Known about the structure:
By secondary structure, the chain is of the alpha/beta class.
Amino acid sequence: xxxxxxxxxxxxxxxxxxxxxxxxxxxxxxxxxxxxxxxxxxxxxxxxxxxxxxxxxxxxxxxxxxxxxxxxxxxxxxxxxxxxxxxxxxxxxxxxxxxxxxxxxxxxxxxxxxxxxxxxxxxxxxxxxxxxxxxxxxxxxxxxxxxxxxxxxxxxxxxxxxxxxxxxxxxxxxxxxxxxxxxxxxxxxxxxxxxxxxxxxxxxxxxxxxxxxxxxxxxxxxxxxxxxxxxxxxxxxxxxxxxxxxxxxxxxxxxxxxxxxxxxxxxxxxxxxxxxxxxxxxxxxxxxxxxxxxxxxxxxxxxxxxxxxxxxxxxxxxxxxxxxxxxxxxxxxxxxxxxxxxxxxxxxxxxxxxxxxxxxx
Length: 361
Ligand code: CP
Protein backbone atom coordinates (compact mmCIF):
# COMPACT_ATOMS: atom_id res chain seq x y z
CA UNK A 1 0.00 0.00 0.00
CA UNK A 2 1.19 3.53 -0.66
CA UNK A 3 1.27 5.16 2.75
CA UNK A 4 0.15 8.77 3.01
CA UNK A 5 3.27 10.75 3.87
CA UNK A 6 3.59 14.06 5.59
CA UNK A 7 4.39 17.14 3.52
CA UNK A 8 8.02 18.11 3.41
CA UNK A 9 10.15 20.60 1.59
CA UNK A 10 11.43 19.14 -1.72
CA UNK A 11 14.98 20.02 -0.72
CA UNK A 12 15.05 17.52 2.14
CA UNK A 13 14.05 14.51 0.07
CA UNK A 14 17.12 12.32 -0.42
CA UNK A 15 18.52 11.43 -3.85
CA UNK A 16 16.89 8.39 -5.38
CA UNK A 17 18.57 5.09 -4.61
CA UNK A 18 15.78 2.54 -5.08
CA UNK A 19 15.62 -0.78 -6.82
CA UNK A 20 16.32 -1.16 -10.52
CA UNK A 21 15.88 -3.84 -13.13
CA UNK A 22 19.01 -5.78 -14.09
CA UNK A 23 21.04 -3.07 -15.77
CA UNK A 24 24.23 -1.09 -15.70
CA UNK A 25 22.46 2.24 -15.44
CA UNK A 26 21.80 3.92 -12.09
CA UNK A 27 18.25 3.73 -10.76
CA UNK A 28 15.70 4.94 -13.26
CA UNK A 29 12.07 4.07 -13.90
CA UNK A 30 11.22 1.16 -16.15
CA UNK A 31 8.13 0.13 -14.24
CA UNK A 32 6.29 1.70 -11.33
CA UNK A 33 7.59 -1.06 -9.05
CA UNK A 34 11.08 0.41 -9.44
CA UNK A 35 9.83 2.99 -6.93
CA UNK A 36 9.44 1.67 -3.40
CA UNK A 37 6.29 2.80 -1.57
CA UNK A 38 8.18 5.54 0.21
CA UNK A 39 9.89 6.79 -2.95
CA UNK A 40 6.57 6.76 -4.78
CA UNK A 41 5.08 8.88 -2.02
CA UNK A 42 8.10 11.19 -2.26
CA UNK A 43 7.57 11.67 -6.01
CA UNK A 44 3.86 12.38 -5.53
CA UNK A 45 4.43 14.78 -2.62
CA UNK A 46 7.10 16.59 -4.61
CA UNK A 47 4.76 16.73 -7.60
CA UNK A 48 2.11 18.38 -5.40
CA UNK A 49 4.61 21.07 -4.48
CA UNK A 50 5.63 21.71 -8.04
CA UNK A 51 1.97 22.01 -9.00
CA UNK A 52 1.45 24.45 -6.13
CA UNK A 53 4.09 26.69 -7.70
CA UNK A 54 7.42 25.67 -6.13
CA UNK A 55 10.18 26.60 -8.57
CA UNK A 56 13.61 25.08 -7.98
CA UNK A 57 16.51 24.77 -10.43
CA UNK A 58 16.91 21.07 -9.63
CA UNK A 59 18.38 20.30 -13.06
CA UNK A 60 20.72 23.29 -13.38
CA UNK A 61 23.68 22.25 -15.52
CA UNK A 62 22.05 18.91 -16.36
CA UNK A 63 20.84 17.51 -19.67
CA UNK A 64 18.21 14.88 -20.34
CA UNK A 65 17.94 13.05 -23.67
CA UNK A 66 14.49 12.06 -24.92
CA UNK A 67 14.40 9.40 -27.62
CA UNK A 68 11.07 8.78 -29.29
CA UNK A 69 10.67 5.70 -31.46
CA UNK A 70 6.90 6.47 -31.53
CA UNK A 71 4.99 9.74 -31.50
CA UNK A 72 3.75 11.57 -28.42
CA UNK A 73 1.88 14.73 -27.58
CA UNK A 74 1.61 14.80 -23.78
CA UNK A 75 4.70 12.90 -22.66
CA UNK A 76 7.03 14.85 -24.91
CA UNK A 77 5.59 18.30 -24.25
CA UNK A 78 5.36 17.75 -20.51
CA UNK A 79 9.00 16.62 -20.36
CA UNK A 80 10.21 19.51 -22.53
CA UNK A 81 8.50 22.04 -20.27
CA UNK A 82 9.53 20.14 -17.11
CA UNK A 83 13.23 20.21 -17.93
CA UNK A 84 13.04 23.89 -18.88
CA UNK A 85 11.24 24.82 -15.65
CA UNK A 86 13.82 22.86 -13.61
CA UNK A 87 16.66 24.82 -15.21
CA UNK A 88 18.07 21.97 -17.30
CA UNK A 89 18.38 21.18 -20.98
CA UNK A 90 16.27 18.62 -22.81
CA UNK A 91 17.41 17.10 -26.11
CA UNK A 92 14.50 15.63 -28.06
CA UNK A 93 15.11 13.17 -30.85
CA UNK A 94 12.62 11.29 -33.01
CA UNK A 95 13.60 8.06 -34.74
CA UNK A 96 12.99 8.29 -38.47
CA UNK A 97 13.64 12.03 -38.70
CA UNK A 98 16.45 12.90 -36.26
CA UNK A 99 18.06 9.50 -36.03
CA UNK A 100 17.43 5.90 -36.98
CA UNK A 101 16.23 2.55 -35.70
CA UNK A 102 18.60 0.80 -33.34
CA UNK A 103 19.28 -2.90 -32.84
CA UNK A 104 18.53 -4.15 -29.33
CA UNK A 105 19.51 -7.82 -29.62
CA UNK A 106 23.00 -8.73 -28.51
CA UNK A 107 25.31 -10.77 -30.71
CA UNK A 108 23.37 -10.54 -33.99
CA UNK A 109 24.88 -9.88 -37.41
CA UNK A 110 23.53 -6.39 -38.08
CA UNK A 111 22.51 -6.83 -41.71
CA UNK A 112 18.92 -5.57 -41.17
CA UNK A 113 17.49 -2.05 -41.29
CA UNK A 114 19.00 -0.76 -38.02
CA UNK A 115 22.43 0.80 -38.65
CA UNK A 116 23.38 1.21 -34.98
CA UNK A 117 23.26 -0.95 -31.86
CA UNK A 118 21.73 0.19 -28.56
CA UNK A 119 25.01 -0.78 -26.88
CA UNK A 120 26.83 1.94 -28.84
CA UNK A 121 24.04 4.55 -28.87
CA UNK A 122 23.47 4.20 -25.11
CA UNK A 123 27.19 4.41 -24.31
CA UNK A 124 27.60 7.57 -26.40
CA UNK A 125 24.38 9.27 -25.21
CA UNK A 126 25.42 8.57 -21.61
CA UNK A 127 28.46 10.78 -22.13
CA UNK A 128 26.25 13.74 -23.15
CA UNK A 129 23.20 13.34 -20.92
CA UNK A 130 22.53 12.86 -17.20
CA UNK A 131 19.44 10.72 -17.89
CA UNK A 132 17.81 9.18 -20.94
CA UNK A 133 14.08 8.77 -21.48
CA UNK A 134 12.96 6.27 -24.10
CA UNK A 135 9.64 5.60 -25.85
CA UNK A 136 10.32 2.35 -27.74
CA UNK A 137 8.24 1.10 -30.65
CA UNK A 138 7.10 -2.50 -30.15
CA UNK A 139 7.48 -4.54 -33.34
CA UNK A 140 3.76 -5.40 -33.22
CA UNK A 141 4.05 -8.96 -34.58
CA UNK A 142 3.88 -11.21 -31.51
CA UNK A 143 2.80 -10.27 -27.99
CA UNK A 144 4.98 -13.05 -26.54
CA UNK A 145 7.98 -11.18 -27.94
CA UNK A 146 6.92 -7.56 -27.39
CA UNK A 147 5.86 -8.17 -23.78
CA UNK A 148 9.53 -8.73 -22.93
CA UNK A 149 10.21 -5.00 -23.48
CA UNK A 150 13.64 -5.89 -24.84
CA UNK A 151 14.21 -2.39 -26.25
CA UNK A 152 13.92 -0.47 -23.00
CA UNK A 153 15.81 -3.13 -21.05
CA UNK A 154 18.64 -2.98 -23.60
CA UNK A 155 18.93 0.79 -23.00
CA UNK A 156 19.00 0.20 -19.24
CA UNK A 157 21.65 -2.50 -19.68
CA UNK A 158 23.96 -0.43 -21.82
CA UNK A 159 23.52 3.12 -20.49
CA UNK A 160 25.46 4.47 -17.52
CA UNK A 161 22.78 7.05 -16.65
CA UNK A 162 19.20 6.53 -15.37
CA UNK A 163 16.71 5.30 -17.98
CA UNK A 164 13.08 6.43 -17.89
CA UNK A 165 10.38 4.45 -19.67
CA UNK A 166 8.12 6.82 -21.63
CA UNK A 167 5.74 3.91 -22.46
CA UNK A 168 6.83 0.48 -23.53
CA UNK A 169 4.65 -2.45 -24.63
CA UNK A 170 4.10 -3.62 -21.06
CA UNK A 171 3.77 -0.43 -19.05
CA UNK A 172 3.48 3.35 -18.86
CA UNK A 173 4.74 4.31 -15.38
CA UNK A 174 4.68 8.06 -16.14
CA UNK A 175 0.95 7.92 -16.88
CA UNK A 176 0.44 5.95 -13.66
CA UNK A 177 2.21 8.69 -11.68
CA UNK A 178 -0.09 11.36 -13.11
CA UNK A 179 -3.12 9.14 -12.55
CA UNK A 180 -2.19 8.52 -8.91
CA UNK A 181 -1.68 12.24 -8.39
CA UNK A 182 -5.12 12.91 -9.88
CA UNK A 183 -6.74 10.27 -7.68
CA UNK A 184 -5.06 11.70 -4.57
CA UNK A 185 -6.21 15.22 -5.47
CA UNK A 186 -9.77 13.95 -5.89
CA UNK A 187 -10.14 11.48 -3.00
CA UNK A 188 -7.27 12.30 -0.64
CA UNK A 189 -3.97 10.51 -0.18
CA UNK A 190 -5.50 7.34 1.23
CA UNK A 191 -7.14 5.59 -1.72
CA UNK A 192 -7.79 2.32 0.13
CA UNK A 193 -11.27 0.97 -0.50
CA UNK A 194 -12.15 3.34 -3.34
CA UNK A 195 -13.74 1.54 -6.27
CA UNK A 196 -12.33 1.97 -9.76
CA UNK A 197 -13.88 0.43 -12.85
CA UNK A 198 -11.31 -0.11 -15.59
CA UNK A 199 -13.32 -0.48 -18.77
CA UNK A 200 -12.33 -1.22 -22.34
CA UNK A 201 -13.50 1.21 -25.01
CA UNK A 202 -13.64 0.74 -28.80
CA UNK A 203 -11.24 2.37 -31.23
CA UNK A 204 -10.17 1.63 -34.81
CA UNK A 205 -6.65 2.50 -33.67
CA UNK A 206 -6.46 0.87 -30.25
CA UNK A 207 -3.46 1.43 -28.05
CA UNK A 208 -1.42 -1.30 -26.47
CA UNK A 209 -2.37 -2.41 -22.96
CA UNK A 210 0.53 -0.53 -21.29
CA UNK A 211 -1.52 2.21 -19.61
CA UNK A 212 -4.13 -0.22 -18.32
CA UNK A 213 -1.45 -2.56 -16.97
CA UNK A 214 0.19 0.28 -15.04
CA UNK A 215 -3.10 1.71 -13.79
CA UNK A 216 -4.35 -1.70 -12.70
CA UNK A 217 -1.21 -2.40 -10.66
CA UNK A 218 -1.04 1.14 -9.25
CA UNK A 219 -4.67 1.01 -8.13
CA UNK A 220 -4.29 -2.39 -6.47
CA UNK A 221 -1.03 -1.32 -4.83
CA UNK A 222 -2.98 1.62 -3.36
CA UNK A 223 -5.56 -0.75 -1.85
CA UNK A 224 -8.30 0.19 -4.31
CA UNK A 225 -11.09 -2.18 -5.36
CA UNK A 226 -10.75 -2.76 -9.09
CA UNK A 227 -13.50 -4.02 -11.36
CA UNK A 228 -12.11 -4.87 -14.78
CA UNK A 229 -14.37 -5.18 -17.84
CA UNK A 230 -13.54 -5.91 -21.45
CA UNK A 231 -14.96 -8.00 -24.28
CA UNK A 232 -13.82 -11.60 -24.57
CA UNK A 233 -10.48 -11.77 -26.34
CA UNK A 234 -9.19 -8.55 -24.79
CA UNK A 235 -7.64 -10.19 -21.73
CA UNK A 236 -4.61 -8.36 -20.38
CA UNK A 237 -1.12 -9.82 -20.20
CA UNK A 238 -1.13 -12.97 -18.06
CA UNK A 239 2.05 -11.98 -16.19
CA UNK A 240 0.53 -8.62 -15.26
CA UNK A 241 -2.74 -10.29 -14.25
CA UNK A 242 -0.96 -12.70 -11.97
CA UNK A 243 0.83 -9.78 -10.30
CA UNK A 244 -2.53 -8.00 -10.07
CA UNK A 245 -4.21 -10.98 -8.40
CA UNK A 246 -1.39 -11.19 -5.85
CA UNK A 247 -1.64 -7.46 -5.10
CA UNK A 248 -5.42 -7.71 -4.79
CA UNK A 249 -5.10 -10.53 -2.26
CA UNK A 250 -2.55 -8.54 -0.22
CA UNK A 251 -4.83 -5.63 0.62
CA UNK A 252 -7.87 -6.18 2.87
CA UNK A 253 -9.45 -2.94 1.63
CA UNK A 254 -8.91 -3.71 -2.04
CA UNK A 255 -9.16 -6.50 -4.54
CA UNK A 256 -9.69 -7.40 -8.16
CA UNK A 257 -12.89 -8.61 -9.74
CA UNK A 258 -13.95 -9.16 -13.33
CA UNK A 259 -17.21 -7.85 -14.74
CA UNK A 260 -18.86 -9.07 -17.92
CA UNK A 261 -19.91 -5.62 -19.07
CA UNK A 262 -18.75 -2.04 -18.60
CA UNK A 263 -22.09 -1.30 -16.93
CA UNK A 264 -21.58 -4.05 -14.38
CA UNK A 265 -18.10 -2.71 -13.64
CA UNK A 266 -19.37 0.87 -13.27
CA UNK A 267 -21.91 -0.04 -10.57
CA UNK A 268 -20.96 1.76 -7.33
CA UNK A 269 -17.64 2.87 -8.80
CA UNK A 270 -16.01 6.09 -7.62
CA UNK A 271 -14.00 6.22 -10.85
CA UNK A 272 -14.61 4.91 -14.35
CA UNK A 273 -11.22 4.60 -16.06
CA UNK A 274 -11.84 4.20 -19.79
CA UNK A 275 -9.23 3.12 -22.31
CA UNK A 276 -9.10 1.33 -25.65
CA UNK A 277 -6.60 -1.44 -25.93
CA UNK A 278 -5.92 -3.98 -28.61
CA UNK A 279 -6.81 -7.63 -28.43
CA UNK A 280 -3.69 -9.53 -27.49
CA UNK A 281 -5.38 -12.55 -29.10
CA UNK A 282 -5.30 -10.70 -32.42
CA UNK A 283 -1.99 -8.95 -31.79
CA UNK A 284 -0.29 -8.33 -35.11
CA UNK A 285 -3.51 -8.85 -37.10
CA UNK A 286 -4.92 -5.34 -37.52
CA UNK A 287 -7.68 -6.37 -39.96
CA UNK A 288 -9.19 -8.90 -37.57
CA UNK A 289 -8.77 -6.49 -34.67
CA UNK A 290 -10.58 -3.67 -36.54
CA UNK A 291 -13.52 -5.86 -37.54
CA UNK A 292 -13.96 -7.02 -33.95
CA UNK A 293 -14.05 -3.42 -32.72
CA UNK A 294 -16.77 -2.59 -35.23
CA UNK A 295 -19.01 -5.32 -33.83
CA UNK A 296 -18.36 -4.55 -30.19
CA UNK A 297 -18.47 -0.79 -30.13
CA UNK A 298 -22.11 -0.19 -29.19
CA UNK A 299 -22.05 -1.79 -25.73
CA UNK A 300 -18.82 -0.18 -24.61
CA UNK A 301 -19.39 3.54 -25.15
CA UNK A 302 -19.09 5.39 -21.82
CA UNK A 303 -22.15 7.63 -21.60
CA UNK A 304 -24.17 9.45 -18.95
CA UNK A 305 -26.31 6.43 -18.16
CA UNK A 306 -23.22 4.32 -17.46
CA UNK A 307 -21.66 7.03 -15.27
CA UNK A 308 -24.88 7.29 -13.26
CA UNK A 309 -24.45 3.69 -12.13
CA UNK A 310 -21.45 4.78 -10.07
CA UNK A 311 -21.18 6.65 -6.79
CA UNK A 312 -20.91 10.15 -8.19
CA UNK A 313 -18.32 8.51 -10.42
CA UNK A 314 -15.52 10.50 -11.97
CA UNK A 315 -14.23 9.77 -15.48
CA UNK A 316 -10.56 9.13 -16.19
CA UNK A 317 -8.86 8.44 -19.53
CA UNK A 318 -5.15 8.83 -20.38
CA UNK A 319 -5.78 10.34 -23.84
CA UNK A 320 -5.72 10.52 -26.80
CA UNK A 321 -9.46 9.84 -26.81
CA UNK A 322 -11.98 9.29 -29.62
CA UNK A 323 -15.01 11.38 -28.76
CA UNK A 324 -18.41 9.71 -28.99
CA UNK A 325 -16.80 6.38 -29.83
CA UNK A 326 -15.05 5.79 -26.49
CA UNK A 327 -16.78 8.44 -24.35
CA UNK A 328 -19.63 10.80 -25.17
CA UNK A 329 -19.03 14.54 -25.40
CA UNK A 330 -21.37 15.18 -22.49
CA UNK A 331 -19.40 12.91 -20.12
CA UNK A 332 -16.04 14.08 -21.37
CA UNK A 333 -16.90 17.77 -21.10
CA UNK A 334 -19.03 17.35 -17.99
CA UNK A 335 -18.21 18.20 -14.38
CA UNK A 336 -17.20 14.64 -13.48
CA UNK A 337 -14.42 14.40 -16.03
CA UNK A 338 -10.85 14.34 -14.66
CA UNK A 339 -9.31 13.86 -18.07
CA UNK A 340 -7.69 17.28 -18.51
CA UNK A 341 -6.53 17.20 -14.87
CA UNK A 342 -4.82 13.86 -15.54
CA UNK A 343 -3.09 15.28 -18.61
CA UNK A 344 -2.09 18.46 -16.73
CA UNK A 345 -0.58 16.31 -13.96
CA UNK A 346 1.91 14.83 -16.41
CA UNK A 347 3.95 18.03 -15.95
CA UNK A 348 4.34 18.15 -12.14
CA UNK A 349 4.80 14.38 -11.85
CA UNK A 350 7.50 14.32 -14.53
CA UNK A 351 9.18 17.24 -12.74
CA UNK A 352 8.93 15.35 -9.46
CA UNK A 353 10.42 12.22 -10.96
CA UNK A 354 13.30 14.00 -12.71
CA UNK A 355 14.14 15.91 -9.53
CA UNK A 356 14.29 12.77 -7.44
CA UNK A 357 16.27 10.78 -10.01
CA UNK A 358 18.85 13.46 -10.72
CA UNK A 359 19.21 15.33 -7.49
CA UNK A 360 22.66 14.85 -6.01
CA UNK A 361 24.09 13.04 -9.05
N1 CP B 1 -1.05 9.50 -22.48
C1 CP B 1 0.08 9.68 -23.19
O1 CP B 1 1.15 9.10 -22.88
O2 CP B 1 -0.03 10.58 -24.19
P1 CP B 1 1.02 10.76 -25.39
O3 CP B 1 1.03 9.46 -26.16
O4 CP B 1 0.49 11.91 -26.19
O5 CP B 1 2.37 11.04 -24.83
